Amino acid sequence: MQRLTPAAAATVLRAGGVIVYPTEAVWGVGCNPFDAQAVQRLLDIKQRPVDKGVILVGASIAQFDGLLAWDRLPPDRADAVRAQWPGPRTWIVPASTRVPAWITGTHEGVAVRVTDHPIVIALCEAFGGPIVSTSANLAGEPPAFAFNALSQAVLSRVDGVVEGETAGLRAPTAIRDAATGAELRAG
Q: I want to staple 53 with a disulfide (CB 3.0 to 4.6 A). Which of 92, 105, 127, 149 is the partner?
């Protein structure tokens, strides 16, 4: 298993690779969201259906320019969402037509998070945009809060691991609907 710096991991992502990296709470698995083959490989590794969609994580709101249809939200809701970032908060925001169906799944929105985790920020900045961020576990299994809890079934199939630690949150980030503020997954 190849240990990677954020810059080296960005190179792997641009080449269609899949990586494991620490996030705010759990270890994540990620790839280039605009590479259909990379996303399918990630989903195959996780044994996750494409219709569920995946989260995108970015280093800044600007990294999502052109991907989010803010105009489909009431201005006060859009402002409320943006005010929550950066931080460990994931929102379902209406997706623009630039977001592929392999990211949104069967949904009209896309799950996005502007992180405050320094390793993920460095990774997204080196990559030059948001990346896929889903837990590095097989579908239906508990997420890994520590590196030594990562499944060998996942680790044996990725192209590298970004070294570091999670930010120590005790639960994966909550997911909320940007249009209503309703919690869709508890954090």
A: 105
Q: State pLDDT tens for residues 59-78.
A: 999 999 999 999 999 999 99
Which residue in 172, 137, 176, 141 sits closest to 158, CA to CA? 137
The domain spanning residue 115 has which CATH number? 3.90.870.10
Domain hosting residue 167, numbered range: 3-185
pLDDT tens-digit profile of 92-126?
999 999 999 999 999 999 999 999 999 999 999 99
**Residue 123 backbone dihedrals phi, psi, to 5 degrees:** -65, -50
Question: 75-93: buried (b, 16+ CB within 10 Å) or exposed (e) per residue?
Answer: eebbeebeeebbebbbbbb
